[in-house]
User: Which sequence fits this backbone?
């Protein structure tokens, strides 16, 4: 049972002990040691961190951002800065405990022999973390300083600030109970007793004197303020913990932590702090005031002109801009121009451009880099953020996969790794002023992962652009809704770009941002297509939507073609013989194109179907397959380097006129969904398997995407048969009654009800076509309409209702899971453990995927050559690095990872010793989770060489069509 010593009595004794000890701050107490020539006094590290926090306030936050944060604290900007410095200095006060000091036995022995540091026997062996110790020790100190105290812990600022600082290792603890707060030493003997408490008080008093942080919070900290303050404190801690920073400040054994010694160290730390922050590449990116034409070098189209002309009159601080327009209508340039306007109005310090896939992020990185080079001043550090970013050709020159940072962080193992990754020039993450990356980099900020506050801090002072806002399922949409609440409450401007966003989805996103801004009453959100609307974060007002003319209105001619499914092992249940098969339909549709020339996209649902289709077309059109580039295949199951080569070849062959290579006179690309968003490709005809309406419209956006008028076919122009409007042929798998019936392989990809709704709408539009953009918003909303069944006969309506119930159930399941997992809303949050699963088990970031159900394992194919040499290439020219032992360099790691490929988890569920890593690979964290596929070769009946390997009772092969499961 805890003892009966009250917190108030303990603090009185602590003050008395400080007076009795003479030297108020004991410089023998250490705070950093690993990797240093000698241990570093804890007081010096606390002073260093306080100084760096002040520099971050000055150099990373803009004036409006500082004023917003100060307003949330209820004090001036200058007072808020002082308080930040004080709190940053107090973050490691829990190191003044026997358990922590005993980790350095020689230093501990000097202290423990001093009677002032007597403590209960054995407490130095307790597993008491220093962040936990600080959480228990600080509330009493804050109460003595006059921080508001309430009978309810949840309404007490003295505990709340302590809980915030206890989260500096990335996880907020649970709130302490009233009884625990009254008697911390009784509950946690590891705090050490009176002498240890006296030193904690002495250190705190010294920090308060140096920083001038005598102000007292007027009330509770809003959650958004705590997130930003703690984020700054964590960054300050990491920056101040770099070896080169500490080594040049080691005070020497004769140094005393009296007022004169501390003043001198404080002056040195303050003078050095600005350079430490600048060296990390942190700062403010300033968007130049330039016209649209001045930014991009061409005149704006109607959408861009409308935004450039009208948005400046609406922006009055933070806000949300929603832009809806067809694929290829210049949303990216519109979004970047708007981001500059909104950043200047809100005082934002940078930009994060979030995209749905790594491929789109890689492509956008180059565009943002060019935009920043020409239109941004100040600190222009640009980060590319996704799990494979360091493999990007445009980014890897500055990256080194897994190499030790030249500026190592002196910390415990877990925070050392996290900080080291962040501090490397290419790993600044969302703290970099400018960044592009996958949207999950932002969404992870609202999942209970370690250091989610750093993600939220990085976003809080930026304009956040979310591209393809329609492309996310219920799980990711739920996370995006929660993220928008946080962005709204933190005053971060947001730009949402979409080609096919439903009205209900648009409304949920807009309302989430408005809630964060403090507006609970729902508003009317009616997006127009194409067009835009703006939501003011200051007033909550939603502007009247601005409809604009499309820069290229057109009619999409849609032709649904019912087919029977004729692929072995992939039949649709109930498929009957007779009628046109899928294969026959493809041959019929492609034969005239092969004869008359043209470029065609054939889009398949699964990788297996794409591979089979490619093989089938090779056999059906040998004259096409024999021409270089006549028949191509693109999907996600190629090794990374080969997929990049194919992607580049496709961009050269089918890209924008004048920017690509020679457009082939006739060519067919067989692909999967990877072409929907990742690539700027242009075809004369698109043939697609049935898919949800929004995805079909995305694919149709690859048909006649660019203006080729005036160009002869040999110059990249179109054949005469193409005409003036784009064409989309949709192959619909049907049963004997002509009803859409999904092949088994599709049932884990698409929802049956949604495909049947889409099919019905396609048939309605087949005669007149789809006016783009005029009909798009109506159709996107119609496919989800609750009264959709009214247009069907009784039997079809009943069947659709059954299928809809399954679809709604699946959606609700994903939404419910998101509600259970994601962090709590910032609105009314006073217990910060709501950011860390209520102080419980965090989600391991390495295991979290914000794309629910995306179970995959990265694998690398290696090739066993004659003589048992193992190489990375089938030709046998690149020996596997590390296969003979030894350490792998950063270049070796990149060479391996560039050849990796994501495979379904169930393919590798039975992996055994044959898939184990070499020791040198296992020692590199970025390679540690790879599976090795040791491919052996065999000659086929026609003399061709096949490579395959066994994984349990499965056989995996690799060939010109990528990786397959035999």
Assistant:
């Amino acid at each position: 049972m805890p003892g009966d010593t009250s917190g108030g009595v303990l603090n009185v004794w602590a003050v008395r002990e400080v007076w009795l000890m003479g030297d108020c701050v004991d410089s023998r107490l250490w705070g950093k040691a690993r990797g240093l020539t000698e241990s570093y006094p804890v007081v010096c590290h606390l002073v260093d961190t306080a100084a760096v926090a002040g520099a971050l306030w000055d150099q990373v936050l803009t004036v409006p951002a500082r004023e917003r944060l100060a307003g949330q604290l209820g004090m001036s900007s200058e007072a808020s800065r002082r308080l930040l410095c004080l709190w940053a200095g107090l973050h490691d006060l829990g190191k003044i405990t026997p358990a922590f000091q005993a980790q350095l036995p020689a230093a501990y022995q000097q202290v423990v022999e001093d009677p002032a540091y007597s403590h209960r026997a054995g407490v130095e062996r307790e597993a008491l973390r220093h962040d936990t110790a600080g959480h228990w020790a600080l509330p009493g100190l804050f109460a003595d300083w006059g921080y508001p105290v309430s009978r309810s812990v949840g309404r007490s600022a003295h505990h709340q600030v302590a809980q915030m600082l206890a989260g500096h290792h990335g996880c907020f603890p649970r709130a302490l109970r009233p009884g625990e707060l009254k008697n911390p030493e009784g509950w946690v003997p590891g705090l050490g007793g009176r002498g240890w408490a006296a030193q904690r008080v002495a250190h705190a008093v010294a920090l308060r004197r140096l920083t001038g942080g005598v102000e007292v919070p007027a009330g509770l900290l809003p959650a958004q303020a705590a997130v930003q303050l703690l984020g700054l404190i964590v960054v300050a801690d990491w920056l101040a913990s770099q070896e080169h920073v500490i080594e040049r400040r080691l005070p020497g054994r004769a140094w005393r932590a009296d007022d004169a010694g501390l003043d001198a160290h404080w002056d040195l730390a303050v003078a050095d702090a600005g350079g430490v922050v600048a060296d990390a590449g942190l700062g403010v990116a300033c968007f130049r005031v330039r016209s649209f034409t001045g930014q991009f070098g061409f005149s704006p189209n109607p959408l861009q002109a409308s935004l450039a002309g009208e948005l400046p009159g609406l922006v009055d601080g933070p806000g949300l801009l929603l832009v809806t327009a067809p694929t290829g209508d210049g949303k990216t340039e519109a979004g970047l121009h708007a981001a500059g306007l909104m950043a200047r109005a809100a005082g934002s310090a940078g930009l994060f451009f979030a995209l749905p896939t790594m491929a789109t992020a890689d492509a956008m990185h180059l565009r943002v880099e060019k935009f920043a080079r020409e239109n941004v001043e100040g600190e222009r550090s640009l980060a590319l953020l996704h799990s494979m970013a360091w493999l990007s050709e445009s980014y890897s020159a500055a990256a080194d996969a897994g190499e030790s940072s030249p500026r190592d962080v002196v910390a415990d193992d877990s925070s050392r790794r996290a900080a080291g990754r962040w501090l490397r020039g290419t790993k600044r993450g969302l703290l970099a002023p400018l960044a592009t990356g996958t949207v999950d980099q932002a969404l992870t900020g609202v999942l209970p992962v370690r250091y989610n506050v750093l993600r939220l801090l990085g976003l809080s002072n930026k304009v956040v652009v979310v591209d393809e806002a329609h492309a996310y399922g219920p799980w990711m949409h739920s996370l995006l809704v929660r993220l928008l609440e946080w962005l709204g409450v933190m005053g971060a401007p947001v730009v949402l770009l979409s080609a096919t966003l439903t009205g209900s989805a648009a409304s949920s996103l807009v309302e989430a941002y408005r809630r964060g801004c403090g507006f609970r009453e729902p508003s009317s959100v009616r997006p127009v297509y194409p067009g835009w609307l703006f939501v003011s974060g200051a007033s909550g007002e939603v502007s009247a939507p601005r409809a604009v003319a499309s820069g290229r209105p057109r009619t999409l001619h849609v032709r649904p073609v019912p087919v029977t499914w004729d692929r072995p092992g992939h039949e649709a249940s109930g498929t009957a013989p007779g009628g046109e098969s899928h294969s026959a339909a493809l041959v019929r549709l492609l034969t005239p194109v092969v004869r008359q020339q043209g470029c065609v996209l054939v889009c398949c649902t699964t990788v297996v179907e794409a591979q089979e289709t490619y093989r089938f077309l090779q056999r059906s059109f040998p004259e096409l397959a024999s021409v270089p580039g006549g028949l191509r295949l693109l999907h996600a199951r190629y090794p990374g380097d080969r997929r990049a080569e194919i992607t580049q070849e496709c961009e050269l062959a089918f890209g924008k006129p004048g920017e690509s290579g020679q457009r082939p006179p006739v060519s067919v690309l067989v692909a999967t969904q990877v072409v929907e968003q990742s690539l700027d490709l242009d075809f004369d005809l698109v043939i697609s398997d049935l898919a949800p309406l929004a995805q079909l419209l995305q694919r149709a956006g690859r048909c006649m995407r660019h203006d080729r008028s005036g160009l002869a076919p040999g110059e990249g122009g179109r054949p005469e048969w193409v005409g003036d409007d784009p064409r989309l042929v949709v192959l619909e798998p049907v049963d004997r009654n002509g009803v859409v019936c999904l092949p088994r392989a599709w049932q884990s990809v698409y929802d049956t009800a949604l495909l049947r709704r889409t099919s019905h709408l396609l048939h309605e539009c087949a005669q007149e076509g789809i006016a783009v953009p005029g009909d798009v918003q109506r159709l996107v909303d119609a496919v989800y309409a609750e009264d959709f069944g009214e247009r069907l006969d009784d039997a079809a309506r009943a069947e659709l209702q059954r299928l809809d119930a399954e679809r709604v159930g699946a959606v609700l399941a994903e939404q419910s899971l998101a509600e259970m997992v994601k962090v709590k809303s910032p609105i009314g949050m006073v217990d910060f453990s709501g950011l860390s699963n209520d102080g419980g088990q965090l989600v391991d970031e390495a295991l979290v995927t914000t794309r629910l159900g995306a179970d995959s394992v990265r694998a690398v194919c290696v090739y066993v050559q004659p003589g048992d040499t193992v190489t990375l290439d089938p030709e046998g020219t690149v020996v596997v690095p590390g296969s003979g032992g030894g350490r792998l360099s950063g270049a070796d790691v990149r060479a391996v990872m560039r050849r990796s490929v994501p495979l379904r988890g169930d393919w590798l569920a039975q992996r055994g010793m044959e898939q184990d890593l070499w020791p040198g690979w296992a020692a590199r964290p970025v390679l540690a989770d790879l599976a090795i596929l040791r491919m052996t070769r065999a000659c086929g009946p026609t003399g061709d060489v096949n490579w395959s390997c066994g994984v349990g009772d499965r056989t995996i092969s690799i060939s010109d069509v990528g990786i397959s499961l035999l």
